[in-house]
Design brief:
Layout (H helix, E strand, L loop, with lengths): L5 E3 L6 E3 L2 E2 H8 L3 E5 H18 L7 E3 L6 H9 L3 E4 L2 H9 L7 E3 L6 H9 L4 E4 L2 H14 L3 E8 L21 E2 L4 H10 L4 E7 L11 H20 L5 E3 L17 H19 L5 E3 L4 H4 L3 E12 L5 E5 L8 H5 L5 E3 L7 E8 L8 E9 L7 E5 L19 E6 L2 E6 L4 H5 L4
Parallel strand pairs: 4-20, 5-6, 6-7, 7-8, 8-9, 9-10, 9-11, 11-12, 12-13, 15-17
Antiparallel strand pairs: 1-2, 2-3, 4-14, 14-15, 14-19, 16-19, 17-18, 20-21
Helix pairs in contact: 2-9, 5-6, 8-9
Bound molecules: pyridoxal-5'-phosphate.
The site of pyridoxal-5'-phosphate has 16 residues, from helix 10.
Amino acid sequence: MICENISVSRDGSHLLFAGQDTVSLAQEYGTPLYLMDEERIRSRCRTYKAAFARNFGPGSVPLYASKANCFKRMYQIMQEEGMGIDVVSSGEIYTALQAGFDLSKAYFHSNNKTDWDVAYAMDNHVGYFVADNAEEIKAVEREAGKRNFRQQVLLRLTPGIDPHTYEAISTGKVDSKFGVAIETGQASDLVGFVLKQPHVELCGFHCHVGSQVFAEDVFERAAVKMLDFIAEMKRKYGYEARQLDLGGGYGVRYVESDPHLDIDVKVDEVARTIHSTCERLGIREPEIHMEPGRSIVADAGMVLYTVGTVKTIPGYKSYVSIDGGMGDSPRYALYKAKYTLYAANKMAEPCDFKASVVGRCCESGDIIQAGVMLPSSIHRGDIIALCTTGAYHYSMASNYNRLPRPATVMLSGGTSYVAVRRESLEDLVRNDL
Ligand SMILES: *Cc1c(COP(=O)(O)O)cnc(C)c1O
């Protein structure tokens, strides 16, 4: 099984997730259906929390990257686990507020916060802005000035590191829409500018090199670049950064050939580099933050679908159509992301039938996964499970073709409950005048 929270029933026929029968869950809640394993989410948070406590000084906390999967219950879990959060829009801020999350532990990202976003975040006391550029600093200075307080800010920098991941989720290179480059000298100039703003308190620096990162050393190299920059700012302006945020990005296993990353080992390695580099540079070790999204929630998720039609084109290939598609699982359509799939009610049968599992949207690119091996008896009414879907599924979902978005059901301690209700047909026309 691709993840340890996935298993089969005693008679070998049904797929279990978090110890619960997925076929029964599909019957009870309908499909398509997002499942989330709550214990898994919590245990991932605890792994990060413990690694931070073991390695870094006071004030260092892991921040959950909300964009991976954002709904009220998720923020309650993050609050209970003592995590901070990163948010990227007023919508995420609003959701966190509705969940009762303490926004003083929120870091507000985005390469283009509107004036309205800036005002909204300040009115709701978001702890930190992660400012992307000089334009944003001016907007923050203006709005904080009106409110007569100092907004805490980190600057997002691009350290010039290629994380060797998908192009669409690679963000730390010099040529990026995000952040200011260290290499071009623009980052240094921006620090000089920020330090002159009376209503902006510069707390430190942020970088995020990419997502689904497995390559060795990426975080270590980023940390060294960022600490070098901190030392340079100390020399140049006498300014010593209090916080260093290294972003998110640790990869997770979608298919058997993906490596297994041990977060404990990874954080320990980065910490060793940080300790030795600070010592070498003669700078005080900053509070460390990281922003894991995928590695907290991805393998806590699964999507269940019901098979509709099975079609074989002689001399070409076979298609298995399911009752969802790119609207609920867009990552294959976006960048041909790989996944593991199971025929959830036929786990005892051999998988000797090759097919492309496709969605029901009116797009040829609406593919869940090409060339999947399934039991040859697969037919209408069977349940297909798509694994490792806790990140970048619900949060990226759309109503394309006016398909309602699925419910999210949480699995916890042998029971289940709805955290996000399934959209109804009425929901689809709610804003139509
Ligand atoms: C996307 C993103 C993250 C989370 O990345 P994961 O790969 O999901 O861990 C963290 N920080 C920033 C700024 C991001 O854009």
